[in-house]
């Protein structure tokens, strides 16, 4: 997911060329307060442009309620895929957001529930209220993902982000488990969001993030997009092993057994389910890649 400031036309014009699965038109942190009013009217005209190569379109709105309403008024229209709701701290906030989006979907003649929501936990209060937020995510069907905003969270803690990431380990780990519990996708990366010059380190952190349980991540620079696409996609070796696993396990099940051996390691029912998920993800990514080929 690539962030694009909604107030910078030259970035919007080239966003469809970047190879991202999702373009996030940002009304929040990357847009100065003095520019937010001018950025809102740009959104609807930008949807078709940034989605030309098959990308989904999210809009990151602002947290203060008055700005949130203005942002939603501007954003909810045909062509939008979802809303990124930053700094979520309570289940009640999510319930209110759901109602606000629903009203605007109806007013725009859109199918209720068609606008998804990606929730971002970015504070100690949000982390401490994670159980209630997870329960609300299960009730609000439009919620498809959860992320942990390490930059805001560490600023609140009064510490700087580091490459090792111990200052944000708990928030990252909790957000992955919370997303899994709610049946939605966990998004994030173990490294700092603003470190984009050392691309080798960035790719290493992205691969560690995939192993950690995240299913994707957002980025702020086009050079990071292909790195994330590689890191969060199953490798050719993983896909081949998954196919062999399914083949061997199906043969074992036909013979009345629930385990087998692959390359000297035991495989069993959980291994089979993991392999099936890998192939499902591989197929979904291939379908998205085919959309990216359209101009």
Layout of helices and strands:
Elements: E1 2-5, H1 9-14, E2 22-26, H2 36-39, H3 43-50, E3 56-60, H4 65-75, E4 82-85, H5 91-107, E5 116-121, H6 124-128, H7 130-139, E6 143-148, H8 150-157, H9 169-182, E7 185-187, H10 199-212, H11 225-231, H12 236-254, E8 259-262, E9 265-268, H13 269-292
Parallel strand pairs: 1-2, 2-3, 3-4, 4-5, 5-6, 6-7
Antiparallel strand pairs: 8-9
Helix pairs in contact: 5-7, 7-9, 10-11, 12-13
Task: Give the tags.
295 residues; alpha/beta; TIM Barrel; 2 domains
How many strands?
9
Write the H/E string, N to C: EHEHHEHEHEHHEHHEHHHEEH
Q: What ranges have pLDDT less than 50 throughout 5 or more consecutive residues?
A: none
On the 0-100 scale, what is the average pLDDT? 93
Overall CATH class of the largest domain: Alpha Beta
| CATH topology annotation of the largest domain | TIM Barrel
Q: Hey, roughly how much beta strand do the residues contain?
A: 5-15%
**Strand order, sheet with most strands:** 1-2-3-4-5-6-7
Helix content: 40-55%
Shape: globular
* Count of domains: 2
SS class: alpha/beta
**The named CATH superfamily of the largest domain:** Phosphoenolpyruvate-binding domains
CATH architecture name of the largest domain:
Alpha-Beta Barrel
The span between the termini is: 19 Å
User: Could you describe the largest sheet, including whether it forms a barrel?
Assistant: 7 strands, parallel
How many helical elements?
13
Radius of gyration: 20 Å
């Amino acid at each position: 997911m690539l962030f694009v400031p909604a107030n910078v036309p030259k970035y919007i014009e080239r966003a469809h060329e970047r190879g991202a699965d999702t373009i996030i038109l940002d009304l929040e942190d990357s847009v100065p307060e003095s520019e937010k009013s001018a950025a809102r009217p740009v959104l609807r005209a930008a949807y078709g442009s940034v989605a030309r190569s098959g990308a989904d379109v999210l809009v990151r709105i602002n947290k203060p309620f008055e700005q949130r309403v203005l942002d939603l008024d501007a954003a909810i229209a045909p062509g939008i895929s979802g809303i990124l709701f930053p700094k979520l701290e309570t289940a009640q906030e999510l319930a209110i957001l759901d109602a606000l989006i629903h009203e605007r979907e109806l007013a725009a003649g859109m199918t209720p529930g068609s606008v998804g929501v990606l929730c971002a936990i970015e504070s100690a209060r949000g982390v401490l209220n994670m159980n209630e937020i997870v329960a609300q995510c299960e009730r609000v069907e439009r919620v498809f993902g959860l992320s942990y905003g390490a930059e805001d969270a560490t600023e609140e803690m009064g510490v700087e982000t580091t490459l090792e990431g111990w200052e944000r380990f708990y928030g990252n780990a909790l957000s992955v488990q919370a997303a899994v519990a709610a049946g939605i996708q966990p998004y994030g990366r173990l490294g700092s969001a603003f470190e984009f010059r050392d691309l080798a380190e960035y790719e290493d952190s992205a691969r560690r993030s995939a192993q950690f349980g995240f299913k994707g991540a957002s980025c702020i620079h086009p050079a990071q997009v292909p790195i994330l696409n590689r890191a969060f996609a199953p490798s050719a070796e993983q896909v081949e092993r998954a196919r062999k696993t399914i083949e061997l396990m199906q043969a074992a099940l036909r013979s009345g057994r629930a385990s087998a051996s692959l390359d000297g390691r035991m495989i069993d029912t959980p291994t089979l389910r993991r392999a099936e998920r890998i192939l499902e993800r591989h197929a979904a990514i291939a379908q998205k890649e085919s959309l990216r080929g359209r101009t």
